[in-house]
């Protein structure tokens, strides 16, 4: 149900979590997990999501950078927002190199607008969807939280700007935040209620599976001359359900400790682009044509997470650690 009129929606539960970008890939999975766990998610997004409607999760259609719009939601609904999970933003590395202003405006400026409204309304628990792109080319691997932060592209830079701002807001205004640095989100809801779908699609696994379905004629490999075992980039893929579980633990961490922190989220092992294609061919039983293309600007050759801090402090343990399982869930979603 889309709530265009705030008066339409009244709640009695106490654990209300606002999700910006909650109709998107990770946000929709998070909304479902919160609902399953007895929380009441409230979503702000620029678009609708039929899955959330079916699960009676309210969606307010609008821009998180519009302070009046956000303020109306916070002031006029009959509940207190306990915390905010911030997923809204743009995520395409290549596009950010071509159009950096869009990324600084969407990911940084609009987030500052949102934060200003939250602080004025005494909402001081904030979980931020950050990225491994803040680290740039690894100086060592796996990458822990202390690794130098030297983004190679405006996407990573825009996320780092937000992280640095959150540190300042903690010190000056008492906003407590947890920054969760995703490596490569992948997979789909095991119950197949929602999955990964972008327009245009830019993520590797859904692109590979679209090629398996014949929706696209091939899968492009951007560079096969990297200094890696098979020449293609290596990434740490983390199941979207495991990411959402980390968000839930981060929420409990803020409730218990009222202390800001940052965590790297990955499986701590890497899979190359060529290996992903091979696994997808086995799971789908389809031949997946490949086109070798030049390297993309801003792509590091290898990104693998050190996830020990999240395990130790949050008590987080990834459940889906095998690429076969991750791709199987993604295939179940995209092929239905």
Describe the structure.
By secondary structure, the chain is α/β, with parallel strands linked by helices. 40% of the residues lie in helices and 18% in strands. A 7-stranded parallel beta sheet has the order 3-2-1-4-5-6-11, with helices on both faces. The chain has a 3-stranded mixed beta sheet with strand order 12-9-14. A two-stranded parallel ribbon has the order 7-10. It is globular and about 55 Å long.
- Helix fraction? 25-40%
Name the beta content range: 15-25%
Estimate the mean pLDDT confidence: 92
Task: Kindly name the structural category.
Answer: alpha/beta
Radius of gyration: 19 Å
Fourth CATH level, the homologous superfamily of one domain: NAD(P)-binding Rossmann-like Domain
The CATH architecture of one domain can be given as 3-Layer(aba) Sandwich
Read across the widest sheet, the strand sequence of neighbours is 3-2-1-4-5-6-11
- Give the overall shape: globular
How would you sum up the major sheet? 7 strands, parallel
Number of helices: 11
User: Uncertain regions: pLDDT < 50 for 5+ in a row?
Assistant: 1-13
Assembly of the depicted chains: single chain
Instruction: Count every beta strand, where a strand is a DSSP E run of 2 or more residues.
Output: 14
Termini gap: 24 Å
CATH class call of one domain: Alpha Beta
CATH topology of one domain: Rossmann fold
The helix-strand sequence is EHEHEHEHHEHEEHEEEHEEHEEHH
């Amino acid at each position: 149900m889309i709530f265009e009129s705030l008066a339409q929606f009244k709640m009695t539960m106490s654990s209300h979590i606002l999700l910006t970008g909650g109709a998107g890939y990770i946000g929709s999975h998070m909304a479902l997990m919160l609902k399953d766990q007895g929380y009441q998610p409230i979503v702000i997004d620029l678009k609708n999501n039929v899955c959330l409607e079916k699960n009676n999760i309210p969606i307010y259609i609008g821009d998180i950078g519009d302070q009046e719009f956000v303020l109306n939601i916070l002031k006029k609904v009959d509940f207190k927002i306990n915390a905010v999970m911030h997923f809204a933003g743009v995520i395409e590395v290549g596009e950010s190199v071509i159009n950096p202003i869009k990324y600084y405006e969407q990911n940084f400026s609009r987030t500052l607008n949102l934060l200003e409204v939250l602080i004025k309304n005494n909402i001081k628990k904030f979980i931020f969807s950050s990225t491994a792109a803040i680290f740039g080319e690894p100086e060592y691997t796996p990458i822990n939280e202390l690794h130098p932060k030297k983004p190679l592209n405006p996407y990573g830079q825009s996320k780092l700007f937000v992280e640095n701002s959150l540190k300042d807001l903690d010190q000056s205004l008492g906003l407590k935040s947890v920054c969760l640095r995703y490596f490569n989100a992948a997979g789909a809801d095991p119950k197949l209620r929602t999955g990964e779908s972008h327009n245009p699609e830019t993520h590797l696994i859904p692109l590979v599976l679209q090629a398996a379905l014949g929706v696209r004629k091939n899968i492009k490999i951007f560079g096969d001359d990297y200094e890696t075992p098979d020449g293609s980039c290596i990434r740490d893929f983390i199941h979207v359900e495991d990411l959402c579980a980390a968000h839930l633990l981060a929420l409990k961490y803020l409730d218990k400790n009222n202390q800001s922190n940052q965590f790297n989220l990955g499986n701590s092992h890497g899979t190359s682009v060529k290996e992903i294609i091979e696994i997808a061919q086995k799971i789908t039983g389809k031949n997946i044509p490949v086109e070798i293309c030049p390297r993309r600007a801003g792509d590091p050759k290898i990104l693998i997470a050190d996830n020990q801090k999240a395990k130790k402090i949050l008590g987080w343990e990834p459940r889906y650690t095998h690429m076969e399982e991750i791709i199987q869930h993604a295939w179940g979603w995209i092929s239905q």
